[in-house]
Every structure is written in C-alpha cells, then in structure tokens.
Amino acid sequence: MGLDGAKAQVDIALHPAGERWAVPNDASGIAPLVDRLQALHPPLIVREATGGLERAATAAVAAAGLPGVVVNPRHARDCARATGPLAKTDALEARALAHGAAVLRPPPRPRPDTQTQEVRALLGRRQPLRLRRTAAQNRLAGTSARLTKAMAAHMTWRNAGIAPRDDDRETRLRASPLWRDNDDLWQSAQGSGPVGARTLRLERPELGPRTRQPSAAWGGVAPRTCDRGPRRGRRPIWGGRAHGRPGFYMGPRVATRDNPQVQAFYERLLAAGKVKKVALTAWRHTFLTILNAMLKQRTPWQPQEVQS
After folding, report:
1. Which CATH superfamily hosts domain 2-104?
2. Total-model pTM
3. How far is 254 from 137, CA to CA, in rounded Å?
4. Each residue of 195-204: pLDDT tens digit?
5. DSSP 168-212
6. Helix, strand, coil tally for the chain in percent (to 5)
7. Model confidence pLDDT, tens digit, residues 149-171
8. Can you say how many angstroms the Cα of residue 296 is from the centroid of all Cα atoms in its chain?
9. Which of 12, 27, 100, 138 could lock 79 by a disulfide, CB 3.0 to 4.6 Å apart?
10. 96 near 75, Cβ under 8 Å?
11. Listed residue (46, 35, 40) closest to 11, CA to CA
C-alpha cells in the first residue's frame, strides 16, 4: 500500500489490486482511513517524507500497530521513473509508492517516541538559526564601521534565540535516563562533543544494532565505488543524512590534533601518501565504527592506538 500525503488530502493506492481513493489530511479523514486499513491488513504501508505533511497519517498508522515505513523521496522517485510513466499526479505517486513497496520491501522501522520527536524539532530549529548566525559573523568582518554596531546588536539577538533552545534541549535530554546514559557514553570519546553526539543520536537512531557498513553510509563517510571495466576511479564519499554530516566533522577534526592516539593514526595515513581530506575521512569512518561499537557493547571509550 502506498500513501501520498499532500496538504489537503492523502491519496491511497493498493498493489497489485490497483484500487485507489483519497481522504482529507486531517482528523476527519485519517480516522476512517485507519479503520479501513485495519480491515484490509496490508503487509506493508509506505509513505515518502514530504516535509512533515505525512506526519499525521504516519502517527495514526503507527498508533494502530500497522506495519509502515517512511522512505527517502529520492528512492521513491527513482523507482517510479524506472516504471516509465512521465506524468506526475498525487494518484500516480500513490500507485508508484505501492509498487515500490511490493518490489523493494523496505523494512518497517519503529516510530520515534514523543520525546525524540520534540528534541529533533528543537534541533531542526537550531540549525537554521546557527547557519544565519554564522553568515552574519562572516559579513561582520567586511562591514563598515557605521554598520558594525547594528550588526553586533543583530548578533546578540541571534544568540538570544539560540540559547533558550539549547537549554530546553539539554533539559529534555538529561531528564531521560536512557538518553543521559547514551550521551555520557558517546561524550567519553575524545572528538565527540555535546552537539556532535546529540546530533548523531537524533539523526541516526539506528546506530548501535547495525553493522559498520550501513552506519558509514548513514554517516555520509562510505566511499562510493566508481569503477568501469578495467578502470578504477576515485571513490568519493556521498550521501548520508544532511543534518548529521556537519555535526560529525569538527569533532573528529579536533581529535586529530588533540588526541595522541588519533593523531598517530592520522599522521600514519599522511605518511603513506594520503591527502589530508582522505585521511580525515578515513578517521571519521573509523570513529563512527568505534562509536557504533561503543553503543552496541555499552562500553566507554578506551584510550588506545587506533588501527586502520
């Protein structure tokens, strides 16, 4: 079953039956929809992330105990394009999602709890504020003396908007014993500060039970093979969740300077002829694997030489 959520309505399609209908995207439409889904017992319900418009239907489906998953829109688009049609409507998108659910069979994932959703919302609001503050700081260096005072007042206003959200997020995280234990565990690793650790835990809740390969892919540090016949091309990193990548850069970068064991690993790669970006990416990949193992084994950071 495929659900395509828009602002006004939710389009539903069944595969392979081909049945399709639509309901309003509000409580008056979603409640009867859930009743009908419970009667149909679909083996899998797939929605694509559409900027939050899918959240009401997703929450109702999860509360009813139905198997559902929210997929990456890029994966849904690629699957729809492979089938050939060029037209694009909500009904066709629902049918494409239902077809993709039957072909790809994405595994259902548990829905985040209420606290995690609230903290993610706070983190999501903090990120654009931080980016605008950084942009204002960069403009301040080239601002004339006449505008410096106004820019400084603007920076104070920006900081005043970020600080309460940081305090609120800190209060919510420390109130949960599980979040507090995981936070203390990850921050025991030198190179994983408060912002980086919490961003990873919020944006990558799959870390811990997974293996190192999917963990590296979610972190955006997995090399992308570019080989063709006898040609062996360069393998750049690609993908990962956009909100988590910036938070997982500065911490590992600082660790290559301040952590003797990490510094030895980093300099060994440089001595082998690796460029700095490649060596740093290799360390980020290794560091993410270590953090994943720490969470899986519930073991704090052990200061010893990092092996490649």
Report:
1. Ribonuclease H-like superfamily/Ribonuclease H (3.30.420.10)
2. 0.66
3. 22
4. 777 777 776 6
5. HHHHHHHTSHHHHHHHHHHHTSTT--HHHHHHHHHH-TTTTTS-H
6. 60, 10, 30
7. 888 888 888 888 788 777 777 77
8. 19
9. 100
10. no
11. 46
